[in-house]
Amino acid sequence: MEKILIVGPASQTLGVKIAKELGINYINTEFKKFADGENYLRINLENEDIIKGKEIIIVQSTGPSSSDNQNARIMELLMMIDAVKRMGAGKIIVVVPYLAYARQDKIFRPGESQFANILLKLINSLGIDEFYVVDIHAPKVLEELDCKAVNIDSMSELAKYIKFLGAKDIVVVSPDKGAVERSKAFAKHFGENVPVDFFEKKRDVKTGEITMSGKLSLKGKDVVIADDIIATGGTMATAIKLSKESGARKVYAVATHALLLQSAKYRILDAGADEIIGTDTIDNEAAKVSLAGLIAQYLK
Ligand code: R5P
User: Fold this and answer.
1) What phi-psi label fits residue 298: left (phi over 0), alpha (psi between -120 and 50 degrees) or beta?
2) Ligand 1 centroid distance, CA of 231 (Å)
3) Does ligand 1 come within 6 angstroms of the Cβ of 232?
4) Which of 166, 253, 185, 171 lies closest to 220, judged by CA?
5) Buried (b) or exposed (e) across 230-261, using 16+ Cβ within 10 A?
6) How far is residue 137 from each of residues 24, 152, 153, 208, measured CA to CA in Å?
């Protein structure tokens, strides 16, 4: 079946790169916001027949950016899926490099909605054939989908870049005990015996305030602090500060999805990071590592 890639408004760079990796045709979208705030999206084509019977790959991240927020990105995604379905796509493959709301996968306080699950149920209800996401916060929510669902692991690509920067004598530090297993897997990309350590993080579920503690043996080490998301930068900045207090020589602040909201960049650099490294799941200046080749391998 011939493949065509639809480049979503939030993944213009990554979408085109994936299409080029696959050597397939791609189509962009026309999008805007009406005066009342509603989103508008159309696949930029004149003849709807070109979608009929084809394998359609939709690439749309759903992170907030300067051009729109995550709610708009989700609406655009749903509109793209609906449009290609209506036009008779033979197979619909959805790639959401960063899935918004993924951190709302549990009930933390009475009265909440477990919205990560609801979002996936919504996508599922449109009838898709395959779903790909990168380093989703809690992979369990993918069980909401009836179709093939793949959580792509970006660690190999991030590690390649950090090695290219010349990091040596590395310790991988997890900013949270819960993420230690992920950090251990990440450390393996730097060598069999690369040490992993962690700080203890607590977040007040009402205020969102973070407290972190710990003193590690990091004297003269190059420290890689790895997280799945940098949002406000609070977690990362606190871990950097503690790493510096523990003697770290260099600190690399690494996240698959570097949203860098509010004053995150300032907080992270001010805390002592040498570099902020993210991937192009989020199209911003921290996207130093492209996942186009990796994602394309799954779509061949
Ligand atoms: C939380 O569990 C995540 O893994 C990240 O640590 C968190 O989302 C980062 O948020 P912020 O940058 O606002 O501290």
Assistant:
1) alpha
2) 6
3) yes
4) 171
5) bbbbbbbbbbbbbbbebebbbbbbbbbbbbbe
6) 30, 12, 11, 17
Residue 119 parent element (H or E): helix 115-125
Name which of 50, 112, 61, 111 is nearest 84 in CA terms.
Answer: 50
Asked if 201 is an active-site residue, the reply is yes
Rounded to whole angstroms, how far apart are CA atoms 6 and 20?
A: 12
Nearest CA to ligand 1 atom 7: 229
Average pLDDT along the chain: 96
* CA-closest candidate to residue 246, choices 238, 235, 255: 238
Distance, in Å, from the CA atom of 73 to the CA atom of 78, rounded to the nearest integer, reads: 9
Confidence of residue 140 (pLDDT cuts 50, 70, 90): very high
pTM: predicted TM-score of the whole model, two decimal places: 0.95
- Contact, 240 vs 253, CB < 8 A? yes
Tell me, using a 6 A CB cutoff, whether residue 234 lines ligand 1: yes
d(CA 32, CA 79): 13
The Cβ of residue 117 has, within 10 Å, a number of other Cβ atoms equal to 19
For β-strands 200-203 and 210-213, DSSP reports them as antiparallel
Judged against a pLDDT cut of 90, whether residue 278 lies above it is answered with yes
For residues 242 and 17, what is the distance between their CA atoms, to the nearest angstrom?
38
> Which residue has 């090695």 as its token pair?
163
Given a cut of 90, whether residue 101 has pLDDT beyond it is yes
Expressed in angstroms and rounded, the spacing between residue 234 Cα and the centre of ligand 1 is: 7
Rounded to the nearest angstrom, the distance between the alpha carbon of 136 and the centre of ligand 1 is 13
230 lines ligand 1 (CB under 6 A): yes
For residue range 19-63, list pLDDT tens digits in order: 999 999 999 999 999 999 999 999 999 999 999 999 999 999 999
Segment (H or E) for 240: helix 234-245
